[in-house]
Amino acid sequence: MVAASPFSMRYKKTKAVGIPTIDLSIQNKSEVSRMIVNACEELGFFKVINHGVPEEVIGRMKDEGAQFFGKTMMEKREAGPARPFGYGCKNIGVNGDMGELEYLLLHTNPLDISERSQSINSNDPTKFSCAVNNYVDAVRGLACEILDLAAEGLWVPDKFVFSRLIRDVHSDSVLRLNHYPPSVNEWDPAPSKIGFGEHSDPQILTILTSNDVAGLQICSQDGLWVPVPPDPTSFYVIVGDALQALTNGRFVSSRHRALANSTRQRLSMMYFGAPPLDSWIAPLPEMVSNQNPSLYKPFTWGDFKNAAYSLRLGDTRLDHFKIA
Ligand code: GA4
C-alpha cells in the first residue's frame, strides 16, 4: 500500500477560475490600464501576451538555466549557497521551509551577475552574464510598462510612481530560476509533492515564465487552488506585498505555490521587481481618504525584507505592518 503524502491532507480543492489575459499590443491604452487595475484588484495575478520581450532573449536565458541544472551537484554547489544568492537545493529561506526543487537566486545588479557568472558557467561566463543581463533588462522594461499602466488606471498623477522604484540603479530586484525535477513515473503515481509552498511575493511585481510543464497554482479569493496552464510564450504577472501596501490594499498580493507532480522537469524563471533597500513604502496619498484610511505603517524595503526573512514562507508578513 502506498502511504498518504503528509501534504495531501492539507490540500484545498482546486477550481477552474478564469485567469485574466491582457494583450499589451492593444492600441487603446486606457482600456489596457483598466484591465490591469481590475486584475490586480481581483486576483493580483494575470497573463500578458504580445509583451514585446524577444523570444531569443527568453530562449537564451532558459538554455543557460537548463545547462546549469544539468550539471553535477558538485559543480552546481560552486555557485555558492543561496544565502542570500547562489545555488539552493530543497531548503527555502533560513527558517526551515523545504520544497521539491533546486534553484539559482541572483541579484539583478550587473556587477553581481558578472562576479557570479564565473562560478555558474566557467566555460563561458560572458555568455551567461549576457543572457541574464539581456533578460533582466527586458523583463524590467515589461514590469515598468505594466506598473505605468497600473498607475494610469488608478488615476495617480505621477505615472512613474511605481516603476521609478524598480528602475532605480540601487533597486534590490532579484532573478530566480527554479528547477523541479520529474517526481512521478507511470509505475509510481505518487500524490502531488509541494515544489514551492504557498506564499505571496514580498516585492512590488513578479514577472514569471516557465517551460511547458504545469505546476503553478494560485489561490482564488474564496481560497481554492487554481491551476495555471503553462505558457512558455507568455508571462504571468504577480502583485507583490509592497504593491499591496503602496495601493493601500486596493491591489492584492497573490498567494501561489508550485506542485512538483509531473513526469517531466519544470523550469520557471521569475524576476522580482523591488525598490532600493532604503526606499520608503507607504500607501500613496491618492489611495488614502476618510473612507479608506491608511492600512499600513510606512516601512523601508530593507525593514520589510528583514521581516520576510525572519518569518516562514507562508506567513502573511504585511500583517506585521498593519495599523491596529
Ligand atoms: C518568496 C519570493 C522569492 O522567491 C524570494 C523568496 C525568499 C527565498 O527563497 O530566499 C523567501 C520568500 C521569497 C519569502 C519569505 C522568506 C524569503 C524565503 C523565505 C522563507 C527570493 C523572496 O524575495 O521572498
TrEMBL record:
UniProt record, GO biological process: gibberellin metabolic process
Alphabetic keyword roster: Dioxygenase, Iron, Metal-binding, Oxidoreductase
EC identifiers of the protein: 1.14.11.13
Annotated ranges, domain Fe2OG dioxygenase: 170-275
PROSITE patterns membership: FE2OG_OXY
Catalytic activities: gibberellin A1 + 2-oxoglutarate + O2 = gibberellin A8 + succinate + CO2
Domain of life according to the entry: Eukaryota
Record pathway: Plant hormone biosynthesis; gibberellin biosynthesis; Hormone biosynthesis
EC supergroup of this enzyme: oxidoreductase
Molecular functions per Gene Ontology: gibberellin 2-beta-dioxygenase activity; metal ion binding
PANTHER family: 2-OXOGLUTARATE (2OG) AND FE(II)-DEPENDENT OXYGENASE SUPERFAMILY PROTEIN-RELATED
Family membership: Belongs to the iron/ascorbate-dependent oxidoreductase family. GA2OX subfamily.
Protein name: gibberellin 2beta-dioxygenase
